[in-house]
Amino acid sequence: MKLGKYSFGIGDRFNHEGKAQLRAIIKAQKKGVDITPVWNKSNREHDIVHSEPEGTRTEADEAVRNLSWDSTYCVDADHINLSNVDRFIEHSDFFTLDVAMYIGNASTEEDVKAFIESCTVFGE
Q1: What is the pLDDT of residues 28-80, one digit of tens each?
Q2: Are the C-beta atoms of residues 76 and 38 closer than 8 Å to each other?
Q3: Which spans in the chain are helix H?
Q4: Three-state SS across 67-84?
Q5: Which residues contact residue 118 at a Cβ distance below 8 angstroms, ignoring those fewer than 6 apart?
Q6: Quick one: what percent of the chain has pLDDT higher than 90?
Q7: How far is it, in rounded angstroms, from Cα 119 to Cα 117?
Q8: Which residues in 9-41 are b (16+ Cβ under 10 Å) and which e?
């Protein structure tokens, strides 16, 4: 998959605004701005409103079909991690990893050593 020079995250918690948002991108395209729409909804958002990634995919596909969009578009599994990626695999084009659980946590000495060794240039 190849995104255009500009991409724009769209979508809403309740999967009702896909066509309206795509219409805005179509207006931009008519003015010469090529934007790849990317529907996204985080795992947290799905949990809050009790939805599933399939609904985001359905919203995107229906908006594209109804407005005859013939350019690239994508569905992003937004803010996911290894504990919840499975629910997104079938319905997403790419995956934005949430690294928040790792921020502020010290790495083990073994991990630091392995990382440094992986960065060593051969012959130096």
Answers
A1: 999 999 999 999 999 999 999 999 999 999 999 999 999 999 999 999 999 99
A2: yes
A3: 18-30, 43-49, 53-66, 109-119
A4: CCCCCCCEEEEEEECCCC
A5: none
A6: 73
A7: 5
A8: ebbbeebebbeebbeebeeeeeeeeebbbbbbb
Q: Which two tokens stand for residue 119?
A: 């960065």
User: CA angle, 90 as apex, 34 and 55 as ends, to 5°?
Assistant: 70
Read off the tokens for 98.
């949430």
Listed by start position, the domains of the chain span 6-119
3-state secondary structure of 26: helix
pTM above 0.85, yes or no: no
Asked if 28 contacts 1 with a C-beta cutoff of 8 angstroms, the reply is no
Tell me the sheet residues that pair with 39.
10, 75
Q: What is the pLDDT of residue 34?
A: 94
